[in-house]
Amino acid sequence: MKSQHQVILSIGSNQGNRLENIEHCLQVIHQEIGTVIKVSKLYETPAWGFESDAFCNCALVLHTFNSAHKVLTQILKMEKRLGRLRTKAQGYQSRTIDVDMIAFDSEVITTEKLQIPHPLMQNRNFVLLPVQDLNLDWKHPILQKNISELLALSPDESVCTVVQNLVNPLQNVPLEQFNYVAFEGNIGAGKTTLATKISEDFNAKTVLERFADNPFLPKFYKDQNRYAFPLEMSFLADRYQQLSDDLAQFDLFKDFLVADYHIFKSLIFAKITLAEDEYRLYRNLFDIIYREMPKPDLYIYLYQNSERLLQNIKKRGRSYEQKIPAEYLDKINSGYLDYIKSQTDLNVLIIDVSDRDFVKNQADYLFILDQIQQKIKQ
What we know:
5-stranded parallel β-sheet; about 40% helix; alpha/beta
């Protein structure tokens, strides 16, 4: 599972309607490059290094799965589309929009096209003041100083004035109004990746299933009849123990919790894999446990067709999963959908992600957030 990078960008404009230029740029970054997590206030600052109209400046934090050089390429294309004309003339120039990458995680990058951290950031108040607004736990990896310390040492004497607040695009998705959100899906649907990304983007606590620790799983895929019951009992015991331990650490009335499973999945898989007499015994034990478990405020099922699931399973390369037949995945999908229909007291959202890739395509991730937003409005 890929982890997201934290990117700090600085945006400036001193031509045309500066506020509109920056607000439009923020939206395009969020829609195409990565998830905008935090946005600073808008500052007006004198032109730095040349005589010109004053700039409006801000900073933002971006989450993305892409590399630093990929982000740079995306920024340059976006700037050109938004009217930025780069010339070979020496010195600083006026521009409708200017986006600089200030930091990429805590990496130090020195190439012909990219220098990270930005080599002049510590000398520019119009960069440091907006970045300070972001309240990040970030330290300059070369100078070993945080933003406040860099500001105190900055030689820049120019006055930067706060103009107004800017809107964070994520404010339109008040996911935090739920205390407990569970993502579910078939094998290979991407629920763990999405749950982790959502928790990072919305600053939530996470509960992730410890599927890899189950010693019966590889044996089950080799001999399902023999190992089905111990596998399902082992999963049930582990899920119950983990949820009990993890949920006990949180205040479900105050904390925001995101999980990549709901314990009812145990019953869905058991119904498919167990013989009838084994399932009856399992169901009796499950019902006792299920009554004690907190129910999620929002249950999101990521539906993917079996063909796409098999592609994802092959791509992630777990050896014991490679021989899973499409028929087995079809049964699991049917089991989930039947369960969802029967749950009248569960707040359910089904999202079809069969033709979407929320890791590679920012638009697909925003589609999921939009589906959640629509559910919240209902």
